[in-house]
Amino acid sequence: MTVSVFAPASIGNVTVGFDVLGLAVQPVDGSLLGDVVSVEASDSDRLDVIGNFANKLPSEPSDNIVWHCLQLFNQALAEQKAAQKAAQGHTIQSVRLTLDKKMPVGSGLGSSACSVVAALEALNAFYDKPFSPEQMLAMMGQMEAQISGSLHYDNVAPCYFGGLQLMIADPAIITRTLPSFEDCYFVMAYPGIEVSTKAAREVLPNEYSKADAIAFGQTLAGFVDACYRQDKQQAFGHFKDVLAEPYRESLLPGFVEAKAHLQSAGCLAVGISGSGPTLFAVTDDKALADNAATWLQENYLSTELGFVHVCKADTQGARCL
Ligand code: HSE
């Protein structure tokens, strides 16, 4: 039996919610923007990496985050079995993992979250779901923190649960699903260069002014309120990032010009996806989304690895294929 799980790309921060808001996205043309991990029984543990971006990952399988996911999962299984103090519980099996690395690393599309979520969810499905969604999300956060150097759920939570997720400062909850704007298109443009999340976090100040703290709170609160009322004008009319975008713009060649162009073309909002360099533009007009995609293809991509996808919110999250 082989279990394969797909985990979708996501927009971390969604501009107004640094580290606390994330949205899963899927291309409207039906292509899979995300990673796939397959698990099958084997004589010994092994990891094979295939896919367009396989060559961007460490050549040693034990340096791959998917391998670390397997170790964490096995350790959690062993602890669960010990806690049950009985013959019940799962016996750890040797497995062959295959990571189909479809996502570019350091893209701002939640690439590491895609690998982590797909790997852990595939293992959980392989063992017939020994862990609850809450336990799974905690493990996913732990793995994401290992890669990016800080614990933030704004990619793993939407990647796992789908939709628009708001992080809650209660470890028993972690995340809540917000109503997303399902008639909106999110045009995602990955320029083909790499920006590490670690590096993009290091450019941020350690302290912010009182004015920025107030602006952040008010903007995020206004956005959440607008989601519940499905008020696009309020949601995107005040779509401003005071915490990260001003400091990260300089890491993204052409971002300022692209944002100005797309806003003047009528997009509702434009922002940095996660820590960049992917840019996203929001519109509820399909023709405008297609035009924005063409413009970005011609003006924002800087290497042959770049791509543009017209997406909508992915409300399903990680799923078995
Ligand atoms: N919230 C994280 C950051 C997302 O902006 O650093 C990383 O993709």
From TrEMBL:
Binding-site residues, ATP: 104-114
Cellular component, GO annotation: cytoplasm
Compartmental location: Cytoplasm
Keywords associated with the record: Amino-acid biosynthesis, ATP-binding, Cytoplasm, Kinase, Nucleotide-binding, Threonine biosynthesis, Transferase
InterPro entries with a match to the protein in the record: GHMP_kinase_C_dom (IPR013750), GHMP_kinase_C_sf (IPR036554), GHMP_kinase_N_dom (IPR006204), GHMP_knse_ATP-bd_CS (IPR006203), Homoserine_kinase (IPR000870), Ribosomal_Su5_D2-typ_SF (IPR020568), Ribsml_uS5_D2-typ_fold_subgr (IPR014721)
SUPFAM superfamilies in the cross-refs: GHMP Kinase, C-terminal domain (SSF55060), Ribosomal protein S5 domain 2-like (SSF54211)
Catalytic activity, EC: 2.7.1.39
GO terms, biological process: threonine biosynthetic process
Cleaved signal peptide residues: none
Reaction(s) catalysed by this chain's protein: L-homoserine + ATP = O-phospho-L-homoserine + ADP + H(+)
Enzyme kind, highest EC tier: transferase
One GO MF term attached to the UniProt entry: homoserine kinase activity
Segments forming domain GHMP kinase C-terminal: 244-299
Pathway: Amino-acid biosynthesis; L-threonine biosynthesis; L-threonine from L-aspartate: step 4/5
The GHMP kinase N-terminal domain, residue ranges: 82-163
Family affiliation: Belongs to the GHMP kinase family. Homoserine kinase subfamily.
NCBIfam families: PRK01212.1-4, thrB
PANTHER family on file: HOMOSERINE KINASE (PTHR20861:SF1), HOMOSERINE/4-DIPHOSPHOCYTIDYL-2-C-METHYL-D-ERYTHRITOL KINASE (PTHR20861)
Protein task: Catalyzes the ATP-dependent phosphorylation of L-homoserine to L-homoserine phosphate.
Name assigned to this protein: Homoserine kinase
Species: Thalassotalea euphylliae
Gene it is expressed from: thrB
